[in-house]
Amino acid sequence: MKLVEINKDNWLHTVLLTTNVDGKATVVEKFVASNALSIVQSNYETGWIVRGIEVDGKIIGFTMYGLDEETKNYWICRLMIDYTCQGKGYGKEAVQLVLDEMKQLDNCEVIYLSTEPNNEVAIKLYESFGFQKTGKINDGEAEFILTL
After folding, report:
1. What is the number of other CB atoms lying within 10 angstroms of the CB of residue 105?
2. Rounded CA separation 66/76 (Å)
3. Which residue has the higher pLDDT, 110 or 70?
4. Is there a contact between 68 and 75 (Cβ–Cβ < 8 Å)?
5. 23 and 75 Cβ atoms separated by less than 8 Å
6. Any idea what DSSP says for residue 33?
7. Rounded mean pLDDT of 75-81?
8. Can you say whether residue 125 is alpha, beta or left, with left for phi > 0 and alpha for psi between -120 and 50 degrees?
9. CA 146, CA 52: separation in Å to the nearest integer?
10. Distances from the Cα of 137 to the Cα of 49, 80, 117, 121, 133, angstroms
């Protein structure tokens, strides 16, 4: 597995990935904003890095991370694995790759993320990396923090 740049050859495949079990990508999915919305956001807000999550030459997921210009904190803003590839350990491997890249960013000593409070699978995954609940709720999502 590796993180790859989103480019003219893979953007369409990336935006059509979905966590929706019916296979139809929507702007806002059950637990995450769409990849299309995230790519647009990264073009209009500074600090965000977008990557495809690739396994054996095929993009199976998406992530967006970086320095949030509003909070001035580093965030994993988006992380998704296509519904056809979930349950295979790809999420855990992808989180590790994202953390490895973020550790290389200037002054990245603390990383935040948020997730739907009832997304038990994601919460368990993030806590396995040492993320802890801050007790704050952002736009309906539970906030987590990891000190590197």
Report:
1. 15
2. 7
3. 110
4. yes
5. no
6. B
7. 97
8. alpha
9. 23
10. 24, 20, 9, 18, 10
Amino acid at 148: L
> Do residues 29 and 18 make contact, with C-beta atoms less than 8 angstroms apart?
yes
Determine the length of the chain: 148
Q: 36 pLDDT exceeds 90?
A: yes
Closest CA to 139 of 70, 64, 72: 70
In whole angstroms, what is the distance from residue 25 CA to residue 15 CA? 8
Within a 13 Å sphere around the CA of 40, how many CA atoms are in the beta-carbon half? 7
Beta pairing class for 110-115 and 74-81: parallel
What per-residue confidence (pLDDT) applies to 11?
96
CATH 3.40.47.10 correct for 2-147: no
β-pair partners for 74: 67, 111
Amino acid, single-letter form, for residue 134:
T
Asked whether residue 28 carries a pLDDT value surpassing 90, the answer given is: no
DSSP state of 146: E
Centre a 10 Å sphere on the Cβ of residue 81 and count the other Cβ atoms it contains: 24
